[in-house]
Design brief:
heterodimer, A: alpha/beta, Beta Polymerase, domain 2, Rossmann fold, 3 domains, four-stranded antiparallel sheet, B: mainly alpha
């Protein structure tokens, strides 16, 4: 089918090379229309994300086109060919289809299962469609890629669980509280990790944020950033009755939050659920606090464990996803083959069949001289001759459909046999 | 006759829903649960029609016998669950509710097609109100205990740091606790009103409000337990694990007592 996909990703190219290409091929970069400037290119699409730059094209002549597309990419990145050669991968035909499907389904991503990539593929397709650089084949192919990605998403658990500590904390919070709207968080210690977790939680609709830090200036700076409230460090226990999620990350050598504090707070908050997250090392929250009813305590190791299990699950799910991709690749190939070759084969067989039947009917009057068995044998011989004659042309047509883009044989057969 | 066919259809559809919920729980997939919720809704609709078909020829709602009581019990449970499903998105609760509904329907079907005309003593507006309200209240407690069971499972998973596939599949603790709250909040007043209606009627037909009949005593006990739970919840803040534990424990104890006391129910206040 003469489909080529060239590109480089985080697997093959270091960031310094990727970023130069990405800058060149991003929103302000070359439009997909420039691809059509290459004489062999019939349809084209450029995908550019932080982790990959890829060019997908339907071409007339495989090898020349690949060379010219490579030159095109080097020119864009203003890069040295020898250096780039090592980073670049080239997939052809079925491999190109599989690669695109895997990329769209987020199987090739750095964080497998991350959801952004599908949107980026859609965006790349939209750009190409805007410039009218896609045709029958790429339109169908890209839509098929969307379908494969959707199947992977719904039929496997590949995107189902958090693979970062801060996101794992958010998921747990959701499992505990249901919605996070109107919940209050308290940050004890304003470190980088707690800031990240707070950012995630705020994005999920957490209502209010309180910040207690030993250095008041830092607490106030962060409070200003998150539109929260700074609390004097030694008075944070007083806020416990009104908060729902506590993220502790101080550098204190001993426990900052004691079980006594927690149970006192719990009485005052009438046993409303309380989620304590301890990401400090050494720990800030006495583990005994986690034994109290309606209190859930996770420390950094617990969260890391969740993340590890999730990674493991994702890997297992990825195998299922590869199966789905293989199925979809086969389905796409089947569509493609049916496009031109199959009807021709059917027509060719039909015509031959017609000729054979016609001739046998014409000769029916003198065939009556033969016995039933002999007649059947004559018909068998005629059928065998026709099949043997057709065998090579049909095989040729089938091979052509798998290997070539233009289908001169199909056209020739149609013309020669007047199909 | 139509009533019986509708009832049987409802039973079959409830059963199908319960099976699909089971599949959903087993495979930890949401899609079958969505399908099952649709089936449950259909079953509820057919079930509703079966009441209409049963009551319409009689000219009034007749609720006599085990059949009616259990049938209403099942109906209320299914209806309450579907309402909660809309409100709190706790799809999987259906996997715990629907088998109970099915079981109730099966037991109810034993008395299927029983006499529609009640003895004169059990006829009247107050009897109907009494049965419907009491049974609805008890059905709400059953839902509360199903939610309690799920709460304990989910709580154990999160507490034990085993927040795997099952935990992700079960509803959040907050939602389950909210269900407990809602069910108690509505169940206690319904049972109270149902009991009052019964007692007024008893005054008329028996001449006294109270008989210390085994079933009356049982119901009084149930009412006291749940009123206590509701009180503790509202006044002291029995939430989360405590509330779930007690709701489940009280329900199980009452169920065991009911089974044990069943043979002695042959007195005044019979179901059948």
């Amino acid at each position: 089918m003469r489909l080529v996909l060239l590109g480089m990703s985080h697997w093959t190219a270091p960031v310094e090379i990727r970023e130069r290409l990405q800058l060149a091929c991003g929103e302000g970069g070359p439009v997909p229309a420039e691809l059509l400037g290459i004489p062999e290119v019939r349809e084209g699409l450029i995908l550019s994300t932080c982790n990959r730059v890829e060019v997908l094209a339907r071409v007339a002549d495989g090898e020349t086109a690949v060379e010219r597309l490579k030159a095109f990419i080097y020119r864009q990145g203003n890069l040295d060919a020898a250096e780039l050669e090592r980073c670049l991968y080239v997939h052809r035909d079925r491999d190109a289809v599989r690669h695109l499907f895997r990329v769209a389904a987020s199987l090739d991503s750095l964080v497998m299962g991350e959801p952004q990539i599908l949107g980026q593929v859609k965006e790349a397709y939209r750009r190409a469609a805007d410039h009218r650089t896609t045709g029958v084949l790429l339109n169908r192919l890209v839509h098929h890629a969307f379908r494969a990605a959707k199947r992977v998403r719904t039929e496997t658990g590949i995107a189902g669980n958090a693979v970062s500590v801060s996101y794992a904390a958010v998921e747990l919070a959701k499992k505990i509280f249901g919605g996070l709207h109107g919940k209050t968080i308290l940050l004890i210690g304003a470190g980088e990790m707690s800031e990240l977790a707070a950012r995630h939680l705020l994005r999920q609709g957490v209502g209010r944020i309180l910040i207690a830090n030993r250095t008041t200036a830092r607490a106030e700076a962060m409070a200003a950033e998150f539109q929260g409230t700074a609390v004097p460090f030694d008075r944070f226990p007083e806020t416990l009755p009104e908060v729902d999620i506590v993220i502790a990350s101080t550098g204190a050598p001993g426990y900052v939050v004691t079980p006594e504090m927690v149970s006192a707070a719990l009485r005052r908050r009438r046993n409303r659920l309380l989620f304590l997250i301890d990401i400090a090392v050494p720990r800030d929250i006495d583990p005994a606090a986690g034994e109290i009813d309606n209190v859930f305590l996770y420390n950094i190791d617990h969260l890391q464990e969740v993340v590890d299990t999730n990674r493991e699950t994702r890997r297992a799910e990825a195998e299922k996803a590869e199966g789905i991709v293989a199925e979809e690749v086969a389905a796409f190939e089947a569509w493609f083959n049916a496009l031109a070759v199959v009807p021709t084969i059917v027509a060719l067989r039909g015509k031959m069949e017609g000729i054979v039947r016609g001739e046998l009917e014409k000769s029916a009057h003198w065939l009556t001289g033969f016995s039933e068995e002999e007649r059947a044998r004559i018909e068998g011989i005629v059928d065998a001759v026709v099949n043997k004659i057709l065998h090579d042309p049909i095989t040729g047509l089938k091979e052509e459909s798998l290997e070539k883009d233009e289908l001169p044989y199909v056209a020739a057969v149609r013309r020669l046999f007047r199909l | 006759m139509t009533g019986i066919i509708l009832f049987k259809t409802a039973l079959i559809v409830y059963f199908a829903a319960a099976c699909i919920y089971g599949v959903s729980l087993w495979g930890k997939r949401v899609f079958p649960a969505r399908l099952a919720a649709g089936l449950l809704f259909a079953a509820l609709a057919v079930h509703t029609l079966s009441f209409v078909a049963r009551w319409f020829p009689a000219g009034e709602p007749t609720v006599i016998g085990l059949y009616d009581a259990l049938s209403i019990f099942a109906w209320v449970m299914a209806a309450v669950y579907l309402l909660l499903q809309v409100k709190t998105k706790t799809r999987v609760l259906g996997a715990f509710i629907s088998p109970v509904v099915c079981l109730l329907m099966v037991v109810a079907s034993i008395g299927l097609g029983g006499n529609v005309s009640a003895p004169p003593m059990l006829r009247g507006f107050l009897v109907t109100v009494h049965v419907i309200l009491s049974v609805a209240g008890e059905a709400l407690f059953a839902v509360a205990s199903c939610a309690g069971l799920m709460y304990l499972i989910q709580d154990g998973l999160i507490r034990g740091k085993r927040s795997g596939k099952l935990s992700r599949f079960l509803p959040s603790l907050g939602d389950l606790d909210r269900i407990n709250h809602l069910c108690l909040l509505w169940g206690v007043p319904l049972l109270t009103l149902g009991g009052l209606a019964g007692s007024f009627w008893a005054r008329i037909v028996w001449g006294s409000h109270w008989q210390w009949d085994p079933k009356q005593t049982w119901t009084l006990l149930a009412w006291a337990c749940y009123a206590f739970l509701l009180h503790q919840r509202l006044a002291i803040g029995w939430r989360g694990r405590t509330a779930a534990r007690w709701s489940l424990a009280v329900f199980v104890i009452l169920l065991v007592l009911l089974m044990a006391a069943m043979p002695f129910f042959g007195t005044l206040h019979r179901f059948v």
